[in-house]
Amino acid sequence: MTGSHRINRVLVPPGWSTEAAVMTKQQDTLPLVRRRSNDSSALTAPRAFIRVFTAPGTLESRTRFYEEVQGLERDMWITYPAKGLALAAVGGFLVIEGADEDIAPFLSAAGTLLVDDAAAHLARLTERGAEIVEPLHQVPTGAAFYARHPDGTVVEYVEHRPTPDGD
User: Fold this and answer.
1) Disulfide-capable partner of 136 in 44, 145, 153, 165 (CB 3.0 to 4.6 Å)?
2) What is the spatial distance between Cα 13 and Cα 128, in angstroms, rounded to a whole number?
């Protein structure tokens, strides 16, 4: 089974639109993005996420657990068919669903920082001696890059911007 077809269902967060409840063949290769806030440019401080990796078919139950223990609802829900992933954010947790071979490239990062401006963070990190291990690139939610800090910690930096359909 190819990575672009592993995530073949759409989990719609409670209270959110159900228009995406069933993916069509065309949507199997297109990311679906649902966020309560679609633009991180107004953040005054980065939002840190602890990554939680989970097997295919378990995103909903894992997300529900983090909703219940924090008393919060998810505020992001994203499919990333090109990488074979589906993601949900609940408070400080980023739940990432995928097969072992799909999540393997993401295991090296200690976490994810949602930032106001990825390019500005990339410049500051480079000036301070960080190694850019994955250059700035487009992702379904905006742009991202990976940096290895001088102490060896690898972090994903991501900015969110509205998608063409407004999500």
Assistant:
1) 145
2) 40
